[in-house]
Amino acid sequence: MEDYQCLIFDLDDTLYNFSYAQSIALEKLYARYFGDVCRYDDFKERYQAINRSYWQQVEAGVIRAGQLSVLRFTELKECFKTTALVKDLVEFYHHESCTLPAWCQGAEQALPLLTKQFSCALLSNGTRRDQLAKLQALGLMDDFYPVIFSDELGVSKPNSDIFQPILNTLNVQPKDCLLIGDSLTSDYQAALNIGMDFCWFNEKKVKYSGELSPKIEINSLMELVRYLRMAQATVDDERLQSK
Description:
Structural class: alpha/beta
Strand order of the largest sheet: 3-2-1-4-5-6
CATH superfamily of the largest domain: HAD superfamily/HAD-like
Order of helices and strands: EHHHHHEHEHHEHEEH
Number of domains: 2
Shape: elongated
Number of helices: 10
């Protein structure tokens, strides 16, 4: 049975409800800068396509996360011919999407319990600036160690090299850790690449097909608390029986 020493958390849509924050930010961004040049549905659809394309390039190692925001809004500006400056779009979106106290399901209740029992690290493909703002909004500036951002390291999930600072700092092996994240393409694949157990935070209850087999699947972080308590009880029983 599992006896984890370290929990490694993704941030966006695992702890910080970025999907919600982003939807609010896009509505405000559209109203301020794009409302007179296009329909909202067209704006949102185009933004999502552009954003998805650049994040795929980040995961593939083609560009770095720190480049994404300027590239994304440069293309969006050119698409709709708005007169807004790219730097203004970047700053407005950053503030509106990264400063809401937006929690994912069960995270606010679960984290105090988990950080008391385990070493908890944070591993994000986002930029240091954006992700620190989100941690600040949630009051989580001191809850994780170490905190690793891909733009500082120069590699992104699913590249398994991104785990090395955590493993080295905490002196643990991949088998000692559990990665918790929402993405099957970056988080789960990263865990597979290094031989680490993965907990899929599937808050939206997405159906998937194929041969995927995350170690754990949850819809709320409180489910992880209950799972780990049961796992620890089993480990304790096995140790008692072996004496």
